[in-house]
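input
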Amino acid sequence: MSMFPHTVTLYQTETVIDDKLNETTVNHITVLEGVLLIASKAANVRATGLEGADAVNLHIPFDVNAVDGVTGKAKTYVDPVEGWKKEQDKSKVWTISIGTVFVKGRVIEPDASRTALELGYDDVYQVTKVDKIDFGSPDMQHWEVGGN
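output
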């Protein structure tokens, strides 16, 4: 049981090329339960006057409950390069890297682009940084994700 109250949905996109060289964009959707999402749009607008100054910090514990957005089956974290890119069956794994789109809440839209998600939901962000906090007690280890 996590001490964090939020759920987010990750959209990891991949371009798949079939044997006829047709390109298809595929969303690999992962729901993370037990994360902490801190959005700071209002503070930035007050401080800078910039409407586009929204930013977010997402804290993901290493032991987060991660499930496939379509099947509901558990997923295991893998590193973006060594694990994700080499994994053939992405329904069993998840990762987070620069460019990953995430939405606050449980949002399952298998064919949605980032633009479509932004038009349909308030809290849609794209990852701009990922810090791996892998020291201290196991309860404190997490990823700290920045986005806008």
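quick obs: The longest helix spans residues 41-48.
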